[in-house]
Amino acid sequence: VYSCTQKCIGAPSGMSPIAWTPAAQAKRVACRSFYLDLTLLEDYWLRRKYHHTLSSTMIYALREALMAIEEEGMDARWARHERNHQALARGLEAMGLTLLPPQGERLWTLNAVRVPPRIDEAAVRKQLLEQFNIEIGAGLGPLAGKIWRVGLMGSSSSASLVLLFLGALEQVLRDRGFAMTPGAGVAAATTLGQPAALGRG
Fold first, then answer.
1. CA distance 127 to 117
2. Do 109 and 63 belong to one domain?
3. Which domain holds residue 92?
4. Is 85 exposed, middle or buried (0-12, 13-18, 19+ CB in 10 A)?
5. For 63-113, how does the pLDDT look when each residue is reduced to its tens digit (9 = 90+)?
6. In this structure, are 156 and 78 located in the same domain?
């Protein structure tokens, strides 16, 4: 199992925590890459061949991020991500937008929002960034130009940011002639509870 530090863990990018089973550890095959040779990492603190220069600041950052996760508690962290995803989904749907995955197959952390017809998706992202300092991702591969990717991960999964994004997206879309009831997105998002109760922030 491998991951990265900059997503839901909430640390800076640049590291990939990994875990493997005893069976995988016992399996010995010729490694085709010095950089990816895990046998050189197993005994990092013991006598070994030099592998790479450790970034101590990254280790400290990862430690702080993991301490924050422990302090919040995993159950509370899962619940926060779910609540904020549900608030975002309700808000988007109230604005006349749809999520790409069907209900039951959606990730709480990455929301794929269909771009409405006749809307320049890149122009929307540009205005969100320049006017509101909000950056969302474009679709990739076959979904390029068809969806926006809205992340709710770690500290960015907060009620205040969900409501800020919904309000900003409403203004940007209305500037482009997309018809919706003013304030519908924010109002729908808050039906799950008071903004502060949706999640941290």
1. 18
2. no
3. 74-197
4. buried
5. 999 999 999 999 999 999 999 999 999 999 999 999 999 999 999 999 999
6. yes
